[in-house]
Amino acid sequence: MEGLSDFEKQRLANIAERDALLKQLNLEAQSSGLFTTPGRDGVKVKRKPAPKRVKTEEETPLPVRKSSRIRGLKADSEVAKRKAEEEYEVAKEVERAKKLRRTDSFTMSDMFVAGQKLSGDSLIGVDVLTKPVATPYQRTFCADDISKTTDKDLKALREEMSGLKLWEAWDPQRIKITPERVYSMTFHPAEGKPLIFAGDKLGHLGILDASQEKPISGVKVEDDEDEEDDDPDPVLMTIKPHTRTISSMMIHPSKPTHLYTASYDSSIREMDLNKTTSVEKYGPKSTKIDEALSGIDMAHDDPNTLYWTTLEGVFGRYDTRTPQSDNTVTLWSLSEKKIGGFTLYPSNPHYLATASLDRTMRVWDLRNLSTDEPSPLAVHENRLSVSHAAFNGAGQIATSSYDDTLKIYDLGAKGISSWAPGHTLADDFRPDTVVKHNCQTGRWVTILRPQWQLNPQSRIQRFCIGNMNRFVDIYSASGDQLAQLGGEGITAVPAVAVFHRSQNWVVGGTASGKVCLWM
Q: Is the pTM of this model over 0.85?
């Protein structure tokens, strides 16, 4: 330091002090785990991990190209390039063709995929014809809520619905009704036995007869391992009537031998449960036209007319007794965005309610609905998109929305049955009841939709909906929770939940294609 000016000595002292401070900060950062990757100039910096590539649901793997050497062609030749491109295009066309809807009729052998074919030629027997974060298994409704109920009728119904028990014949983990995620479900309307149908994202239709009993083996079992191998799975059957997601299904009560399914492959098919055949009842003129269907319904007094909605916001009607043409199919453009779900008013089927991605729930009157400029009789705009709008026989509409609410609109109390054509509601049309409910399903869980029990055996209307905590919730039309159904072995969200029309049976379907049944 000798021979240096005072200024230079001060500068070197400052540098030494700065280096000591940086070293101290660096040591503290290392001890806290902030800096793990060495950077330039000896300073460690934190780097973001490379984003992982996530395969999308509908992603189809492209064919692998083979080298010219393996195919016996000279490298870099024009012949090799042309042949490779031709093979690649052919393979892509094959993959695309797999997703095109099939317009021909199917027999059981054509559709059969897996499971056990039921005995006989019929699927049904004579007896049938007669935003918050989810916390798994955390209950939000329990026995204490029932005991505090003062209304006698409500308390009795809560005790009845909470008394439903999980089907104990098989663990829910073993009841795999479809190969892929369940998108839609329905019960057969017969009260003799619970017969369940479920559709998945790839067009499979699973069928479960829940009246079956586990067979008793007469073989003496020596250890637990042999006992597990000797325990048979439930009898299920899987068929494939569609090439894409089965978005909705129904059985008209006056035609209990026919199941109608709507699909993203743009078609509606009718399955004869006696003959075990499937025929297309509606579809665009060309198989190259993509009009993915999001819902299907039929009027209670007309088993021949189909009503449906599409992901493009279109509502359609077609009488299957007439040849399909532009004159017999009526289409209305009711929304600029996806219609996620709709239902007809059972008591007056000229009314319908639609739920849309444009954040609205709308009510329409088919008696004076123009195809050029359709105008709703009531509109309510939500904060976020509306997933489904379900009408019940009393004129009440239940909706689920991504704003984490269930809303109930009581049009029966407003006199909907006596409205004349052209009647409209005020601009301040609002729900009568709002219930907080976690509807943040994310990407891999099917959207939660409320489903009414269409013919309840008491004066209190009720509907069910999946719960992200791995339950199924049951609510009354006034928004009172009646039950929260769960049980051992439920390891996934039973997102697709439906009621039997008249029996107190509830079934839920999961993303793994499994079902939970309460009776």
A: no
